[in-house]
Recover the amino acids of this structure.
C-alpha cells in the first residue's frame, strides 16, 4: 500500500482514539451531572413565570432570608438603584407571599426546574454516546487502512460498512435528543420532534457509495491476485 495512505491512516487513527476518549469523558460527565440534577428534590428551587408575568420562587432556603432584606431590595428595585433580569425579563418588584418569594416581571411564560434541566443534560449524553460508536468504528477503519496491504480488501470494505452503519443512530438521535433538550431548557416541556440529521444521513449515503466502489476494487484486486 502507498506509504502516504498508510501515514494518513495512522494519523486519522490517533485522532479517532483521542475523540473517542473525549466523547467517553463528555458522556460520563453529562450522565453524572444529569443524574445529580434529576435526584435533587424539585421543591429545593423552582421558578415559574405565569402569563401575567408573575414569577414565584419556591425553596426551603426562602425562610432564611430576613423580611427587612426583602423590603430593602424591593425598595431599591422600585427606586431604580438595583436592576436585574430573569430570562431577559426585567424584574419590577419583589415581595414575600407565605413560603415563597414573588417577583413581578414582564415577559412570556417560562418555567425552570433543576430536574427538567437534568433530563435535558441526560438527553445530550445520548448524542455524545452515539458519537463514541462513530469514532470507535472510524478508528477500526483507519487501523485496517494503516496496517493493511491494500485499501481494496474485504476487511476495509467491512470496516467502512460498520462506520457507515454507526452514523445512522447518530443521525436519528442528534435531532431527537437535541430537540428534547432544547424544549426542556426553554419551555420545560417534554416535547419530542421526530427528524433526521440530513447532513449526517447524506454523509452515510456518500460512504455507502464509496463502499460500493471499494468493494468493486476489492474484487478486481482478488481476481488480479488469483491470476498472479
Amino acid at each position: 500500500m502507498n506509504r502516504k495512505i498508510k501515514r494518513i491512516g495512522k494519523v486519522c487513527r490517533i485522532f479517532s482514539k483521542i475523540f473517542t476518549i473525549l466523547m467517553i469523558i463528555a458522556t460520563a460527565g453529562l450522565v453524572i451531572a444529569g443524574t445529580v440534577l434529576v435526584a435533587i428534590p424539585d421543591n429545593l428551587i423552582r421558578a415559574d413565570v405565569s402569563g401575567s408575568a408573575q414569577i414565584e420562587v419556591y425553596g426551603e432556603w426562602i425562610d432564611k432570608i430576613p423580611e427587612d432584606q426583602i423590603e430593602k431590595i424591593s425598595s431599591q428595585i422600585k427606586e431604580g438603584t438595583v436592576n436585574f433580569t430573569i430570562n431577559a425579563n426585567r424584574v419590577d418588584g419583589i415581595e414575600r407571599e407565605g413560603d415563597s418569594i414573588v417577583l413581578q416581571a414582564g415577559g412570556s411564560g417560562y418555567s425552570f426546574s433543576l430536574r427538567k434541566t437534568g433530563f435535558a443534560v441526560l438527553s445530550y449524553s445520548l448524542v455524545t454516546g452515539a458519537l463514541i460508536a462513530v469514532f470507535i468504528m472510524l478508528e477500526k477503519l483507519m487501523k485496517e487502512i494503516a496496517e493493511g496491504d491494500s485499501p481494496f480488501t474485504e476487511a476495509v470494505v467491512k470496516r467502512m460498512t460498520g462506520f457507515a452503519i454507526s452514523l445512522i443512530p447518530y443521525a436519528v438521535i442528534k435531532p431527537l435528543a437535541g430537540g428534547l433538550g432544547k424544549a426542556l431548557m426553554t419551555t420545560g416541556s417534554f416535547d419530542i420532534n421526530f427528524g433526521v440529521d440530513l447532513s449526517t444521513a447524506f454523509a452515510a449515503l456518500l460512504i455507502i457509495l464509496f463502499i460500493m466502489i471499494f468493494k468493486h476494487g476489492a474484487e478486481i484486486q482478488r481476481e488480479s491476485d488469483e491470476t498472479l
